[in-house]
Design brief:
The complex is a heterodimer of chains A (35) and B (140). Helices cover 31% and strands 17% of the residues of chain A. Chain A is of the alpha+beta class. In chain B, 57% of the residues lie in helices and 12% in strands. Chain B is of the alpha+beta class.
Chain lengths: 35, 140
Amino acid sequence: MVALGISWLKDPDQALQVAKNQRKPALLDFSAAPQ
Amino acid sequence: MGTFISENFVPVKIHVKEQPQNFKRFGAQWTPTILIMTSDGDEAHRIEGFLPVEDFLAQLELGLGKALLREEKFQEAESHLRAVASEHADSESAPQALYWAGVAAYKGTKDPGKLKETYQNLLKRFPSSEWTRKGVVWAG
């Protein structure tokens, strides 16, 4: 669904911790697209 | 789209074959599902199913505005929500964005006139939207 050129994290807990530290929302992309 | 995501969110991709447990944990029952969570970990917005790019961009900014509203960043939230209503005026996100922009304006100022003004704008621009019907209680 979502664009290329993004540094995706793979661990939602890590993402939520980074979001908390950076005071930014987290975007969780649940995907079945071929990798 | 990539720039908008990188600048405004901490992005994480969760693949159904690698992390089925996280699909269950976050209640993702279909792909694609996008969750926008506040920096405190509260769900602010959910997008389920594929959308064309323009509609998806509108939904992303709507979600950003709703996340900022939950974080009580009222001015920043209102700015993004009004951008959705003006720059994606033909999308289905626009009336919802205008509704929440009114909420952000009210919460930021405590001025009930902001809600009444929002309802009048909704009625003028989106007379058949459910978000206009939700705003009818603001008519005064």
